[in-house]
Amino acid sequence: MTDVTRAEVCVVACAEAFRGNGEILASAFGTCPAIGARLARATFEPDLILTDGGAHMIRGNWAVGASAEGAVEGWSPLRYIFDLVWHGKRHAMMMPAQIDGHGNTNISALGDHARPKVQLVGVRGAPGNTVTHPVSYWIPKHGTRTFVSEVDSVSGVGHDSAAAAGPAAQRYHDLRRVVTNLAVFDFEPETGAMRLLSVHPGVTVDEAREATGFPLVIQGDVLETRLPTGEELRLIREVLDPRGLRDEEVPA
Q: Looking at residue 217, what DSSP letter applies?
């Protein structure tokens, strides 16, 4: 299998965000993250826990956009989800409308907080998620409208906001990865500033920098995001996304 698409590179990068998680609930928002979490469990992270989108924890693999048909391994209605969240037994990959250089994210509203121009979904679970369990982010269209110097409203807690809030916010604060259609990022440990880890094949470091509305930490030679293996491609194309929904989220 050849001719790897940008979407398939993004799927693998999302899967890599869950590497080393072990037995933990993966909550993946977006098409590529949903495929990526399933790919991680099907290959290098077999203990990862996935749901059918509701209260059932399901064994096996199934295609995005299709009903889960595996055996039910567990049951976790809404009232139990908060126990998983507060005990750190969850890794969410969320989709912010804005993100800044320290990982603060906005899913609430655009514009002045007192009189916003655009109403979004509210902060929802972002504050609690970011101070109690691992969080990563997926941004399918990397640009300066999303990567901003300052978010209009802080929904997800970044490193500087956690530090300002004190030990209670910092103790379990754990931002892992930011994956976009251009590159992969993490956060520099000492400063909490966003760091460029890799650029996808065909993308330059300058292109990633120019699409970002704040300075990036760049240390040494930036790697190229790895390509999927042959088996990973087979799983993506034949099992996890046979309808090619990934290409609707990240066009070739």
A: B
b/e per residue, 76-99, with b = 16+ CB within 10 A? beeeebeebbeeebbbbbbebbbb
Q: What angle do CA 149, 28, 18 make, to 5 degrees?
A: 90
Dihedral sign for Cα 150, 157, 111, 121, please. positive
DSSP strand E in the chain: where? 25-28, 56-58, 72-75, 90-94, 98-99, 105-106, 109-110, 118-119, 135-139, 175-180, 183-187, 194-199, 223-224
Runs of H (alpha helix) within the chain: 6-16, 31-42, 78-86, 126-132, 159-165, 167-170, 205-210, 230-234, 246-249
State if pTM tops 0.85. yes
Beta carbons of 41 and 28 less than 8 angstroms apart = no
> pLDDT for 59-111, tens place per residue?
999 999 999 988 998 888 888 888 888 899 999 999 999 999 999 999 999 99
Crossing angle for the helix pair 31-42 and 6-16, to the nearest 10 degrees:
60
Q: Are strands 98-99 and 109-110 parallel, antiparallel or unpaired?
A: unpaired
